[in-house]
Specification:
The chain is α/β, with parallel strands linked by helices. The chain folds into two domains: 5-164, NAD(P)-binding Rossmann-like Domain (Rossmann fold), CATH 3.40.50; 174-264, Orthogonal Bundle (ProC C-terminal domain-like fold), CATH 1.10.3730. The chain has helices spanning 12-23, 38-48, 56-61, 75-82, 101-107, 140-150, 164-172, 174-191, 196-217, 221-228, 234-244, 247-264; strands at 5-8, 31-34, 51-53, 65-68, 91-94, 113-118, 128-134, 154-158. It has an eight-stranded mixed beta sheet with strand order 3-2-1-4-5-6-7-8, with helices on both faces. α1 (12-23) links the parallel β1 and β2. α7 crosses α12 (247-264). The chain is elongated, with a radius of gyration of 21 Å. The chain starts with a strand and ends with a helix.
């Protein structure tokens, strides 16, 4: 018998998880989503044939696994809205950035099982990176259930929770940093005289192709860089500009800054 899975929050990431579950064979009638916006509920019902509600407590009562797909600043209010229905045998899965399992456990009934998860937006197309960490009372079986939920979204990894803020800064925020890089490469192509549509396609294909090459060959990024960089060629001159402008250090600091923000949340 399939686990009954409920979502508190039906935004983009909640929808991505929903799609992954359905693609993996989860039955729509075992899923329920709460969302405050009627239009969003109607969209989810029509698109995925799942049950929806405006009441968080209804989701908790009708679920074995409850996924908290909400903004971190909203979680005390959300927990208050459904705490009466929460019991220790329910598995709580949180995708909220910066909210520790210990913090969640403070708001939940005693010995509630909590798993903290950091997915990222490529999960929308099944190419996500998801990292999971179990709380104080979560068992290996609970982690297996959570892995099964997220495996349809891309790669999954279990790590100690102490790494989750760094994961948030790197893979959680990283798609935005990569998107900026793609945009900048395309703008550079336009400056060099390429039509916008061609420059955009070449930039996107170059980033995607490079990621695939590194993944499939296991090659170190520095090794690939050296292979592309011929003596006195175009690439080494371009690399000089990147190093002169501190791009490497800026990217490193960007991840650190995002990580610190996750800690603040």
């Amino acid at each position: 018998m399939q686990q009954r899975i409920g979502f508190i929050g039906g935004g983009a990431m909640g929808e991505a998880i929903l799609k992954g579950l359905l693609a993996g064979g989860q039955k729509a009638d075992s899923l329920i989503v709460s969302d405050s916006q009627r239009e969003r509920r109607e969209f989810l019902e029509k698109s995925y044939q799942v049950k929806t509600t405006s009441e968080n407590e209804v989701v908790v009562k009708n679920s074995d696994v409850v996924i908290l797909a909400i903004k971190p600043q909203n979680f005390p209010e959300v927990i208050d809205s459904c705490v009466k229905a929460l019991v220790s045998d329910k598995l709580i899965v949180s995708i909220m950035a910066g909210v520790t399992t210990a913090k969640l456990e403070e708001y939940l009934p005693d010995k509630c099982k909590v798993i903290r998860v950091m997915p990222n937006t490529p999960a929308l197309v099944g190419a996500g990176t998801t990292v999971l960490s179990g709380g104080k009372y979560a068992t290996e079986d609970d982690l297996k259930i959570a892995l099964d939920i997220f495996q349809g979204l891309g790669s999954t990894t279990i790590l100690p929770e102490k790494y989750l803020n760094a994961v948030t800064g790197l893979s959680g925020s990283g798609p935005a940093f990569v998107a900026l890089l793609v945009e900048a490469l395309a703008d550079g192509g336009v400056m060099a005289g390429l039509p916008r549509d061609i420059a955009a396609k070449l930039a996107l294909d170059t980033v995607g192709g490079t990621a695939k090459l590194l993944t499939e060959t296991g090659m170190h990024p520095a090794q690939l860089k050296d292979r592309v960089t011929s003596p006195a060629g175009t690439t080494i001159y371009g690399m000089l500009e990147l190093e002169k402008n501190g791009v490497r250090g800026t990217i490193m600091q960007t991840v650190l800054t995002a990580t610190k923000r996750a800690e603040e949340l």
